[in-house]
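Example record

The entry below shows one chain as it appears in the dataset: sequence first, then structure tokens.
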Amino acid sequence: MKIITLNTWGGRVSKELMDFLSKNQDVDVFCFQEIYHRATHVHVEQGGIDPNLTLFDDMEKVLPNHVGYFRPNYIETYGLAMFIKKGLQVELEGEYYVHRHRGYIPEGEASNHARNIQVVVLKTNEGKLNIFNFHGLWNGDGKTDSEDRLNQSKKLAEYIMQFEGAKILCGDFNLEPQTESLKLIENLPMRNLVKEYKITSTRTSYYTKKVRFADYMLVNDDVKVIDFKVLPDEISDHSVLKLEITL
């Protein structure tokens, strides 16, 4: 089974992103962050390149062999999405809020919106496979620890612990590798594949700041990893993380 996670940057490199998806139809599960779904305006200003306000619909068209699930976390038209290959048995698809609540509108900086975890539970011959899609809090002050981020990680860890079987947590955590907020999740325990595989950056050339980490994939011991890599494709300011496992 192949799983990809990507912060899409709101689809700002839309053509290249769609080309990438069309060439990767064999991927079983896509986990996406910063997805617009029939939005009428830009929610998170990032400058330079306009986002794709119909990104989810465009992804559905280019991934006809997958079923898309959208979970908003800001103004109902911006948030997380997962695309699951048809034929896989989805036992559960849902969400859980780890920062603020659904419908919360922040004062000032829009990026400081509510944060949820999207979860899909797949039923396989080897048992349940729980996949969690996450986009962590951005507070406008770097990717270091804060009270909100520590509380977010505690809630995330408590939620994940409720699930039995193999677990994969992936996404844009907005955290540096050495933070206590990340260690709270690693201590579940879960293997941090970015650290384990000695990845040096999860950002592309579109991102010019010095901190090169934001995205992670973590697995528990029930997940049998075949391969994990950061792909070279420049389809966002975040890199594509790809995991291959056996069931």
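Notes for this example: Helices lie at 14-23, 55-62, 147-160, 180-186, 193-196. The chain has five helices and twelve strands.
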